[in-house]
């Protein structure tokens, strides 16, 4: 089923509403002083995770976040939740700036794992038709990677492994991932920041950002379907069949 179908649209709307509702409930709960005191001192907890008062401590904290975040993403932890955690600890802006390199490093680890561990298996098992699609994927790697990264609920781990196994150019993979990661990192870092601070404006902004990029993704899919009869970029061909319920 293509991504433009009413059923898929309803699924997208449901997912956006569910994510927004989760952070709204979190924000409402954490605004209650009794809840904050029963759980833990959120302000002190965030301050500890950010590092001490010195610039060196804060720089070390940021470095640890990127390093640990990239390792966890490489192990399959969804990058969007890493962005949300970054926003909750460091705020929307710094959380975004730290979660993007963490996501890229994690994706790079998976890419090279796929390239060195899976590429030969794919080459042996792939039929002639599969090899044709693999060549097309390699030729238009940037657009395919960018398109798939714009799916908030696709499996980013499998995508990175697949790109490595198909031996797509690393530069195209990295650039497509960067541009695809950035808007959703903004949205989920803002969700995390708004949720931990009880800031309804931030949660509203994050929801609108997520909706805007879902609309943009559907537009991109429509453009791809218009071109699928040609030899160029056609990421919409074949729809969204491998979408995963867990955000990657």
Structure description:
- The protein has 248 residues and is mainly alpha-helical.
- The chain has one domain.
- It has twelve helices and no strands.
- It has helices spanning 6-30, 33-39, 42-50, 55-74, 79-90, 92-117, 119-125, 128-139, 141-149, 156-165, 170-197, 200-227.
- It is globular, with a radius of gyration of 19 Å.
- Residues 236-247 have low confidence and may be disordered.
Short synopsis of the structure:
With 248 residues, this protein is mostly helical. It contains twelve helices and no strands. It has one domain.
Question: N- to C-terminal separation?
Answer: 21 Å
Number of strands: 0
Element-level helix/strand string: HHHHHHHHHHHH
Question: DSSP strand (E) fraction?
Answer: under 5%
What is the 3D shape?
Answer: globular
Query: What characterizes the major β-sheet?
Result: none
Mean pLDDT: 76
User: Roughly how much helix do the residues carry, as a percent range?
Assistant: over 70%
Total number of helical segments? 12
Give me some keywords for this one:
248 residues; mainly alpha; 12 helices; globular; disordered C terminus
SSE diagram, text form:
Elements: H1 6-30, H2 33-39, H3 42-50, H4 55-74, H5 79-90, H6 92-117, H7 119-125, H8 128-139, H9 141-149, H10 156-165, H11 170-197, H12 200-227
Helix pairs in contact: 1-11, 1-12, 4-6, 5-6, 5-11, 6-10, 6-11, 9-11, 11-12
């Amino acid at each position: 089923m293509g991504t433009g179908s009413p059923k898929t649209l309803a699924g997208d709307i449901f997912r956006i509403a569910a994510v927004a509702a989760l952070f709204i409930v979190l924000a409402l709960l954490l605004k209650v002083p009794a809840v904050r005191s029963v759980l833990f001192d959120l302000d002190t907890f965030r301050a500890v995770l950010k590092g001490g008062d010195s610039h060196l401590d804060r720089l070390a904290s940021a470095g640890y976040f990127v390093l640990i975040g990239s390792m966890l993403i490489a192990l399959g932890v969804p990058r969007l939740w890493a962005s949300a955690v970054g926003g909750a600890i460091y705020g929307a802006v710094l959380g975004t700036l730290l979660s993007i390199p963490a996501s890229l490093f994690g994706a790079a680890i998976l890419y090279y794992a796929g390239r060195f561990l899976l590429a030969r298996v794919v080459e042996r098992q792939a039929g002639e038709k599969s090899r044709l699609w693999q060549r097309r994927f390699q030729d238009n790697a940037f657009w395919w990677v960018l398109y798939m990264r714009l799916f908030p609920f696709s499996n980013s781990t499998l995508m990175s492994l697949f790109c490595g196994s198909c031996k797509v150019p690393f530069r195209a993979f990295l650039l497509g991932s960067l541009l695809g990661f950035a808007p959703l990192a903004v949205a989920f870092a803002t969700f995390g920041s708004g949720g931990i601070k009880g800031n309804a404006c931030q949660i509203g902004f994050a929801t609108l950002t997520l909706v805007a990029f879902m609309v943009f993704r559907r537009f991109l899919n429509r453009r791809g379907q218009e071109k699928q009869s040609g030899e160029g970029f056609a990421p919409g061909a074949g729809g969204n069949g491998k979408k995963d319920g867990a955000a990657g």
